[in-house]
């Protein structure tokens, strides 16, 4: 039977590849993005998320089988934290009621191998256990700081999102409601987000010194789409709170056997 998916970030890169894959399999996709989507909305604002929830309810007829929260930003600005952390969580929480009437509800989000880089601890603590106002104040401080400081915004937002996933997936709202909630952590994937970093052979070689990818190097978004499609497919009934690193080996190289 045709399943209905809400895909954020669907206008570009990994979200676009995922939407195309699901549609090619005959599934119904409700695309969400700032532009070129069924629901055009800024997910970093409360009003945007309210609009998402009402439009998704209207376009789906009240039942969504899978939510793919893919939209994100990797710029050294505070908005990166607002969409990657708050926007992703709000997307999942606001669409959760529509999953409850599905026979096989699923949800997935996207972190990054960059979540392995040392974070800004003040921002990380504020995101996980403080208020949004305090976290955004720290994000603005970092954005206005040195390139090293503003460069911490992306990885810190993704590490916080990974921790949120671990704290949330086994709760009554998700596992308790029969909804597998999981994530993927890509390495470097060729999308508009990374275009400026992967343009030349020299750029790619420099990037791979920071992000070691011994298995096949930098790759295209279709591979991530395939994994995301499995995470939200009916056959995934028992994965809970897992983040699958689809990264050519950077997690293994960086964390070694400290993680299992
Ligand atoms: N490309 C990579 O190497 C890579 C690696 C690890 C993780 N990721 C993550 O994968 C996800 C997709 O990235 P991508 O590479 O496809 O990037 P992309 O820039 O090609 O696509 C991201 C999409 O998200 C949308 N978006 C951004 N802010 C939004 C907002 N406030 N409201 C609604 N939509 C918004 C953009 O408009 C864009 O269409 C992101 O979460 C990114 O952090 C990417």
From TrEMBL:
<comment type="similarity">
    <text>Belongs to the short-chain dehydrogenases/reductases (SDR) family.</text>
</comment>
<dbReference type="InterPro" id="IPR036291">
    <property type="entry name" value="NAD(P)-bd_dom_sf"/>
</dbReference>
<dbReference type="Pfam" id="PF13561">
    <property type="entry name" value="adh_short_C2"/>
</dbReference>
<protein>
    <submittedName>
        <fullName>NAD(P)-dependent dehydrogenase (Short-subunit alcohol dehydrogenase family)</fullName>
    </submittedName>
</protein>
<dbReference type="InterPro" id="IPR002347">
    <property type="entry name" value="SDR_fam"/>
</dbReference>
<dbReference type="Pfam" id="PF00106">
    <property type="entry name" value="adh_short"/>
</dbReference>
<keyword id="KW-0560">Oxidoreductase</keyword>
<dbReference type="GO" id="GO:0016491">
    <property type="term" value="F:oxidoreductase activity"/>
</dbReference>
């Amino acid at each position: 039977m045709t399943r209905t998916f809400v895909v954020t970030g669907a206008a570009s890169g990994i979200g676009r590849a995922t939407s195309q894959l699901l549609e090619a399999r005959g599934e119904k996709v409700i695309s969400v993005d700032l532009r070129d989507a069924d629901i055009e909305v800024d997910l970093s604002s409360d009003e945007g998320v309210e609009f998402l929830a009402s439009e998704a309810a209207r376009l789906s007829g009240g039942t969504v089988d899978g939510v793919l929260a893919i939209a994100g930003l990797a710029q050294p600005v505070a908005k990166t934290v607002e969409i990657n952390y708050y926007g992703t969580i709000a997307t999942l929480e606001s669409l959760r009621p529509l999953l409850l009437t599905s026979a096989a509800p699923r949800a997935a989000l996207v972190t990054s191998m960059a979540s392995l880089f040392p974070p800004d601890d003040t921002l990380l603590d504020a995101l996980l256990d403080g208020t949004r106002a305090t976290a955004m104040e720290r994000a603005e401080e970092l954005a206005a700081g040195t390139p090293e400081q503003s460069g911490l915004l992306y990885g810190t937002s993704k590490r916080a999102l990974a921790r949120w996933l671990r704290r949330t997936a086994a709760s009554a709202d998700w596992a308790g409601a029969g909804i597998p909630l999981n994530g993927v952590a890509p390495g470097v994937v060729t999308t508009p987000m990374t275009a400026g970093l992967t343009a030349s052979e020299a750029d790619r070689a420099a990037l791979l010194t920071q992000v070691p990818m011994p298995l096949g190097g930098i790759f295209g978004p279709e591979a991530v789409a395939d994994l995301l499609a499995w995470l939200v497919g009916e056959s995934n009934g028992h994965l809970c709170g897992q983040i699958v690193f689809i990264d050519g080996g950077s997690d293994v190289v960086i964390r070694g056997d400290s993680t299992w």
